[in-house]
Amino acid sequence: MDSVATQDRPTTETDFDTTRITAEIDTLAAQHRGKNDLFRAAVAKLLKAELLKASEAAEAVLLKDRHGRRCAEQLCHVQDEIIRILFAAATKHLYHSPIPSGAERMAVVSTGGYGRGLMAPESDIDLLFILPYKQTAWGEQVAEVILYCLWDMGLKVGHATRSVDESIRQARGDMTIRTAILETRFLTGDQALYDELVTRFDAEVVQGTAAEFVTAKLAEREERHRRGGQSRYLVEPNVKDGKGGLRDLHTVFWIAKYVYRVRDSKELVARGVFDPQEYRTFKRCEDFLWSVRCNIHFLTKRPEERLSFDLQREIAVRLGYTSHPGMQDVERFMKHYFLIAKEVGDLTAILCAKLEDQQAKPAPALTRMMAKLRPEMHRRRLPDSDAFIIDNNRINLAAPDVFKEDPINLMRFFRLAQKHNLAFHPDAMRAATRSLRLITPEIRENAEANALFMEILTSDNAEIVLRRMNETGVLGHFIRAFGRIVSMMQFNMYHHYTVDEHLLRCVGILQEIERGGNDEFVVASDLMRKIRPEHRAVIYITVLLHDIAKGRPEDHSIAGAKVARRLCPRLGFNAADTDLVAWLIEEHLTMSTVAQSRDLSDSKTIENFAAVVQSVEQMKLLTILTTADIRGVGPGVWNGWKAQLIRTLYYETEPVLTGGFSEVNRAQRIASAQAEFRRAFTEWPEQDLNAYILRHYPAYWLKVELDRKIRHARFLRASEEAGHKLAINVGFDEARGVTELTILAVDHPWLLSIIAGACAAAGANIVDAQIYTTTDGRALDTIAISREYDRDDDEGRRATRIGDMIEDVLEGKVRLPETVAKRASTKGKIRAFTVEPEVIVNNQWSDRYTVIEVSGLDRPGLLYQLTTAISKLNLNIASAHVATFGERARDVFYVTDLLGAQINAPTRQAAIKRALIHLLANGDIAEKPAA
Q1: What domains are there in the chain, each with its CATH number?
Q2: What percent of the chain has pLDDT over 70?
Q3: Left (φ > 0), alpha (ψ -120 to 50) or beta: where does 457 sit?
Q4: Is the predicted pLDDT of residue 369 greater than 50, yes or no?
């Protein structure tokens, strides 16, 4: 708590003239004498205008000097003055008491975030009106005047009216109230009441309860992180409540304030919690986060705390970031943001370590006494190292200069913790961070250091240990290319994490693949057991390095391969394995691209892929890498459909590489898939089952996962028994955040376009599609659309409306072009992105079809527009492969001309390309597409 009425603040243009405003209020009081409601309304109008001017001035100063904390202080100062003016107006003009009794006393106190003396432009105002034990109507009347005026000004106000006794009693039983009172700041009124609260709070609530408070606040922090997503590297972070955000800094200060009874963060240096450098870090982090938060509030005109994609670029510009080769301005800004978030986490760890040392959570008396008599009970030497000790089951330094004496100890520290399954002592982590200059070129080339690193990478719990190495900076200094991508974000909606976080998560997923037992990774786990033993280290280093060159002007796959060629020999790899790592990194996107955007039943697709992978061993490694990479992008990105596509591509290609008879092998796998279906689906008589299996083409049995095959069988029978010409089944995939529409209809060339148009007309955005045709001429299409509602029943009703729209279009009741035109506009966060349109027309990917690959910014109605444009170009669509990667749509169409031939004429190919690029760039179909 701060018993000082006003804090020292720099005078800037945001200071408003309290004397002038008070004089104007006196004039208003004379004009509206005896008309309290009119007077109050006039005061609120005057103060609202003054607050708006002060806020505009604060924004101008922020844009000029970019000091977030200074802006928050100035906004808070203005709010303080407004409340003092209102209190004075209420007690002078409305409820004046010439000789106040002992009951006519009040202290107006700010609490919570407002109590810290810092306010964002759209923040709530939290007030506590402290009244004496004996109360009269006077106190309630004054509080009401203040509150009603603030509400009339359009401000959000949280408030409580309590006596000192009530405040103390509630603080004892409620940790939220206790924290609010901890941060109170006197504004105006009776100072003695406030001082009584301060004194009694210290004596009756705080004293002897530090351990309880610390435990509660840290548990609250963990729960907040859990709700918001544990990683501080989520690419749309919450500046206030996210991991590494302002609330974490607040938690650090709450705990320090409660335990050490300090009134200002700078006192933490005198108490030995932070050293001067760490205190400067604290202030720098705070100022940056306040800059971001204030700019978000000014920009959105609301209390928005999430740094969403559509805000990131504008905030980057407001904060003065510029683009560099390989990195956009917004990516440079977000990298800085995540580095700050990391430093906030470091400060929290330092404080927790200090609290443990000073026994803020005291051990039982007997334990403390025994620890003094026999310190070896909780501190003992590590069995195979003199440099480190075990300190309460955490690895710590045996002496302060352990790293300085032998810098290789920086690697031994992490390897020994991993080997003995020990947690890391914060003091040792702190020492490691301060020893980064010891990692010289000589240490990077040291054989033992590199061998230790490879042991860390390929041993249990590698993800955890590598993350700790990354937090201290050791990983980025030892592998300097990794240091370049620390906290680097990719400005797109596909990747959920920063590049370094993605790579570390991929290592953890690789270990999960190797352990086996997870149905998500059946194929990859099986292949992991079958790769050559010497290639185990190859796949681990490849997974760690596959995105190492993000943020460079050159294609990251090619640049990453160059990094691997330089780094792998240092890490102990021979020339052949170095070449293999480089090849895997250069091709790490190939398998995913082919599986999701090519016709896997086309022999040319398989031949081309086989030519790239060259050998079964390389394909095994690439399959494992692809699985870990997709799964590491974020929740819901890896799913059963993608797993089945990867499986199909692998097993379709294997006989080509081994020289086996492809068709025979394929027939065996089709028979195996059908047998698997028979074993799992026992609801029908054998005769019905045999007839149903014959209804699907061979490619269906290879490309569709078992669960979906069973759902399809039930759906087809139920639809036909009900006599439906058109049937739609609705399903929900929570992991991917999509709604799936499975549509059964009579097949015809425009069906995909009609489905896509109906979805667009209903405002639904298609993110992927699986399209199959039965041997009896029925189309079985599954369309995944982005969810619009949180509740499944709401989403189900929306899906029903889309189904009705499809039926109306097929029956000619609705004309699509006009309906779609009303809905097909780029909206939401996609507006924040730009994607260069690209169209490839290729005859080398298929012997029978011309393949058109289209890539551009996704938008509602895009698939409908594309399929309509292709039809108007007099092309037949034989198959379509629809996928969305965040804001980027990548759709591939296998087409022929109206006679069933490939498009070979260069002029015709150029016309197709021009028409589709025009569509992607301008959002409409050219009036006269070339024939």
Answers
A1: 18-207 (3.30.460.10), 212-297+344-363 (1.20.120), 498-660 (1.10.3210), 827-931 (3.30.70.260)
A2: 89
A3: alpha
A4: no
